[in-house]
Amino acid sequence: METANAIEIRDLDVDYGSRRILSDINIDIRQGEIMVIMGGSGSGKSTLLRCILGLKKPSAGHIYMLGTDICHTSNKKLYGLREQIGVAFQGGALFTSMTVAENIQLPLREHTNLDENTIQIMTRIKLDMVNMLPYENLMPSELSGGMKKRAALARAIIMDPKLLFFDEPSAGLDPITSAELDELIVMLKESMKMTIVVVTHELESVFAIADRIAILGEGQLVQVGTPEEIKSSTDERVTGLLNRTPRKNNVDKDVHIERLTRDKE
Amino acid sequence: MIKAISNLGSYAIETIEQIGRTFNLLLIIAWKMCLPPYQIFPIIKQIYFIGARSLTVIIISGATIGMVLGLQFYNTLERFGSVGVLGSAVALSIIRELGPVMTALMVVGRAGSAICAELGIMRITEQVDALECMAIPPDKYLVAPKLIAGIVSVPLLNFVFNVVAIGGGYFVGVIMLGVGEGSYVNGMIDSVVWGDVRLGMVKSIIFGMLITLICCAKGFYLHLSQYGSQGAEGVSRATTDAVVISSVSVLFFDFLIGALMS
Ligand SMILES: Nc1ncnc2c1ncn2[C@@H]1O[C@H](COP(=O)(O)OP(=O)(O)OP(=O)(O)O)[C@@H](O)[C@H]1O
Ligand SMILES: [Mg+2]
């Protein structure tokens, strides 16, 4: 089944134990677009990403990735799909027992029969793309936070995936590196026709890269739309996120005091 | 009161879940190992880590235990005037009981804790998730080589332990206390039968599997346990648990196998 949508999320509910984290999420992500997922800290962005990647089973709903319902499919199909995606995690998730270069080569070694020379060259190309070439022989523990992020991105794109997921690419990066990374993400979309899902807080990079934006607030989908639509939104939660207005404490004073003083059960 | 009962209940459920997960892991790995790709190099690396790097501690503890046994048995046997059976007494207790048990306990302390901590850290830093997302099955890639290495190395270490310990008993008995060399060696050769050696081998293979399986499962399934959300502290608690549980299981299974096989 070939559709224009790379990912379709339908009526998704997600819980951790008895806590509802996401409820009734519906998002379509089109082939070849950059979809940015925004939302306050703890609003469930990483959780949504984990569901799309099949790492967390939702309590209800469906997620179709490239036409396959990943919540109700065999492990084998899921692994087949995963060979076509690349993921850069929030903390990098580099393997601490391998050098940067070995980390990046791992998918190639596991899934292809390329000869050593080709693997080396491909590694260098991807490392060069993220400006990490001088550091290929360092261990992950010797890298700074931003360098880990860039190495993780290089590992995510080593197999030239159809779909790329990137959790918080620019958090903790200096403005120049951050701008370079934005440029790289746009370049990946344009030259390799990748569909890219980016989770981020940085407003500047959001508007530099996004084709469309989805905004999450307290477990609900607040709005999905183009950057223009989002900018002209009148929803308080959207404008609050864009204009950096602090959350208002519109709880009743007595309730607030009760919350602070009540005993733990 | 009700709270205490409910705590007990949830503790029991968690324990049973953990046992189930652990054996499930064993079955999954046994199944996945039959499917390609077969990986030899990671297994060798783990055998080096679990086996070769434990050699020093095994040799030292083996020599010490052998010498202590030689001394103790000599004192006891002397009262009955039968120091001639010193060789058999030392060899039988080492081969049947102390060799497998002590080797397993040493490996738990030396390698089991490290395995559990390593997998636990990989779990909480999303390295296991990253493997999943690269379509590399983490159980096969991370756990299977450790498990095979455990099953291979523990019996080999047990063999080394036995040799060194019997040598230690020889040193104390024959060289220091003057028991006749002939009676030590011949008594040993006459009394140790194939059944004793087989019992020791079966024990150490089962122990090797048991301790690596428990330590792997504790770390690999860290996120599902009650320590899952405690970060570094969770890893340290899970590691402590893994060491305690695998040591106790070794002692329990030692009794069980002994009772069933003799
Ligand atoms: N393993 C877990 N167990 C229980 N609750 C969790 C777990 N992981 C996340 N949560 C909860 O899910 C909610 C959403 O978390 P999530 O990590 O998705 O937020 P986020 O939007 O990515 O935040 P950030 O921008 O800080 O990364 C939080 O309230 C968090 O407490
Ligand atoms: Mg997050």
Derived from helix and strand composition plus strand pairing, the structural class of chain A reads alpha/beta
- The coarse overall form of chain B would be elongated
List bound small molecules.
adenosine-5'-triphosphate, magnesium ion
- Percentage of helical residues of chain A? 25-40%
Oligomer: heterodimer
| Tally of helical segments of chain B | 9
Strand order of the largest sheet of chain A: 6-7-8-3-9-10
Q: What is the H-and-E element order of chain A?
A: EEEHEEHEHHHEHEHEEHHH
| Residue fraction in strands of chain B | under 5%
Whole-number mean pLDDT of chain B = 90
Radius of gyration of chain B: 21 Å
Q: Radius of gyration of chain A over alpha carbons?
A: 20 Å
Number of domains of chain B: 1
Name the CATH superfamily classification of the largest domain in chain A: P-loop containing nucleotide triphosphate hydrolases
Span from first to last CA of chain A? 51 Å
Structurally, the number of domains of chain A stands at: 2
Detail the poorly predicted runs of chain B. Answer: none
Which CATH architecture of the largest domain in chain A?
Answer: 3-Layer(aba) Sandwich
CATH fold description of the largest domain in chain A: Rossmann fold
The shape of chain A, in one word, is globular
The top level CATH class name of the largest domain in chain A = Alpha Beta
